Amino acid sequence: MKDTVSQPAPDTTRAAADAILAMVREREYDFPGLLAAVLASVAAELGSTYALVASRPGSWEASLVLDLVRGTVGHGDEGLSTYKLAEAATAPGAPAMLTPEDRRTVLEALDVAAEYKRDRAASCPDCDASPALAVGLRPADLCGTCTWRLAQADGYGALAARLGGAR
Question: Which segments in the chain show pLDDT lower than 50?
């Protein structure tokens, strides 16, 4: 007799398959370990490794899933809490949900970081950037570090502008 298995919604299955395919294609990662960690994170969110297989506890697939996850977190789920996700992931490109106080703190930090990068470039012993910075120019004779510093400062400013406008 064939087991009847309820299938997840096609869009959920597709999203999971796409995520797994992306992990496999990233050759620098240990895919088996990463997959085990992802399943351990899901189990931690559910509260136990058994919760992963509760719908088909006696199946051979369930047995293999339990072996994989329990090999990662321990057979008594003793390491499960270390895999709990800090907070739910947001969709890529979703706007950051900051309180007004958080936004002010982030904007101030970005301003401080940008000013620090500009000050370091202005006082660099390897290039004479100070006159150019005073008028906002980017001379071709800046050292590579100062070019990077100024690019970072500009990036911080652009991010601050985006966050500042997201009120």
Answer: 1-2, 134-135, 137, 166-167
Phi, psi (deg, nearest 5) at residue 125: -75, -15
| Cβ contact 149:100 at 8 Å | no
Burial of 28 (C-beta count, 10 Å sphere; 0-12/13-18/19+): exposed
Question: What pTM was computed for the model?
Answer: 0.47
Residues 147 and 90: beta-carbon distance below 8 Å: no
Note the pLDDT of residue 117.
Answer: 75
Domain-by-domain residue ranges, the chain?
Answer: 10-83, 100-164
CB contact at 8 A, 66 and 49: yes
Side-chain-side CA neighbours of 48 within 13 Å: the count stands at 6
